[in-house]
Structure to design on (449 residues):
């Protein structure tokens, strides 16, 4: 085997991995990077960016449907084939442009998943690689589901690249991905079913607002099957037959495609971490405040695969910068995560930042809970939005905003104002005294607090 030596070897070419590699090579270190898939990572190639492009095409459909008969006469239809071509105009150049950028920086590239040989040695592309520091930035991958016929399952990658939309689609799992895809597919004309093992969708979000989103999703034609366990998947001549157990009985449904949207897990299975003395848990690589492995000082982890952060792209870049600093300058920079907003890009958006109602009540002696449907407010009525609601949480003693939960048009944008307010410790009075444009979604937050 050929041997090669690097100061830093990065596994994963997404936002976090690129941030580390670029900073380290610019500091004069000899750097290499590896990825078993196309360069550029999940978000830009097969995740949040292409998903948002597909969502963008459904937004005028939603707006037109809501205003039909109120100035809009003909609701447009979505051409899936042309939409996929539009999506590909964004994604097809990313791998090549990413590789060129890394090459121009003098970073060596490998196109295979490395495996640990020992604490600072890897095997990749038939070569033995030694590195002073190894950075794991492999992100997440779909959770494997094991039942008879699971080989027929499709993944989020398949959904984002299918040339033709099946007329009947089933999603297993009602989390972020399942709900976002379900809304896209339903508006594009598919008959959609979501099967979930729990009693509701989107477990991480506010119960009351999730109920509102669920009800509207049903109005779109999305069917929900809760408290169900998949027992099998059988491929027939024209259809797939999904078997599931519910209330002790086996039931079946026929569909054209079944997508595994049962969540994502750290992509670490093939790295042979045990040989590298790298400990991990269900949340990812076990790291300290410097994002350094707790068991192998030669290894750092950043992005979704670290057990310290949240699986959100903006945090991946932040974590990559922390790791780069600690490699270059020695462990001096700890990861500090601000209050971070989260959004489910359904239509309407479901968004959250800060504490949940339960968390706030357990943390503070007294909490003000402002929960109201705002569908009769001007901004919702002017576009005939069917769903617009909020739940605001304030520390009763200080009147500081400690949590914000929204469902409605552009909630994914409005939530950023609450993230800013919470991170700056703003009170309800300070929000009310702020001048926003009118009429705007931003101005509505003054009435929410």
């Amino acid at each position: 085997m050929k041997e090669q030596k690097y100061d830093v070897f990065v596994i994963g070419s997404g936002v976090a991995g690129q941030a580390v590699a670029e900073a380290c090579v610019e500091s004069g270190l000899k750097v290499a990077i590896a990825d078993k898939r196309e360069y550029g990572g999940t978000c830009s190639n097969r995740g949040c960016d292409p998903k948002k492009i597909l969502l963008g095409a459904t937004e005028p459909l939603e707006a037109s449907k809501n205003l039909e008969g109120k100035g809009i006469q003909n609701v447009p239809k979505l051409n899936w084939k042309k939409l996929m071509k539009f999506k590909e105009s964004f994604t097809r150049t990313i791998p090549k442009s990413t590789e060129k950028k890394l090459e121009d920086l003098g970073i060596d590239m490998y196109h295979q998943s490395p495996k640990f040989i020992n604490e600072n040695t890897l095997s990749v592309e038939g070569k033995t690689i030694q590195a002073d520091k190894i950075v794991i930035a492999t992100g997440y991958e779909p959770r494997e589901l094991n039942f008879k016929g699971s080989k027929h399952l499709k993944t989020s990658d398949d959904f984002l690249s299918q040339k033709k939309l099946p007329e009947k689609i089933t999603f297993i799992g009602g989390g972020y991905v399942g709900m976002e895809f379900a809304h896209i597919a339903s508006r594009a004309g598919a008959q959609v079913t979501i099967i979930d093992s729990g009693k509701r969708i989107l477990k991480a979000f506010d119960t009351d607002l999730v109920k509102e989103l669920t009800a509207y999703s049903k109005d779109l034609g999305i069917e929900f099957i809760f408290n169900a366990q998949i027992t099998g998947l059988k491929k027939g001549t024209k259809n797939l037959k999904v078997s599931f157990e519910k209330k002790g009985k086996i039931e079946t449904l026929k569909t054209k495609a079944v997508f595994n949207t049962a969540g994502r897990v750290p992509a670490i299975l093939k790295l042979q971490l045990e040989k590298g003395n790298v400990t991990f848990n269900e949340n990812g690589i076990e790291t300290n405040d410097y994002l350094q492995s707790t068991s192998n000082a030669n290894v750092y982890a950043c992005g979704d695969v670290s057990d310290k952060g949240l699986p959100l792209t903006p945090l991946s870049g932040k974590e990559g910068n922390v790791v780069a600093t600690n490699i270059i300058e020695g462990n001096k920079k700890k990861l500090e995560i601000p209050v971070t907003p989260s959004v489910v890009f359904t239509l309407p958006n479901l968004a959250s930042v800060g504490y949940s109602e339960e968390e706030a009540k357990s943390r503070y002696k007294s909490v003000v809970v402002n929960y109201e449907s705002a569908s009769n407010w001007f901004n919702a009525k002017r576009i005939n939005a069917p769903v617009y609601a909020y739940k605001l949480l304030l520390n009763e003693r200080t009147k500081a905003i400690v949590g914000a939960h929204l469902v409605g048009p552009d909630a994914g944008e409005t939530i950023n104002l609450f993230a800013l307010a919470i991170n700056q410790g703003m009170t309800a009075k300070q929000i009310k005294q702020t001048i926003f444009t009118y009429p705007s979604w931003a101005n509505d937050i003054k009435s929410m607090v």
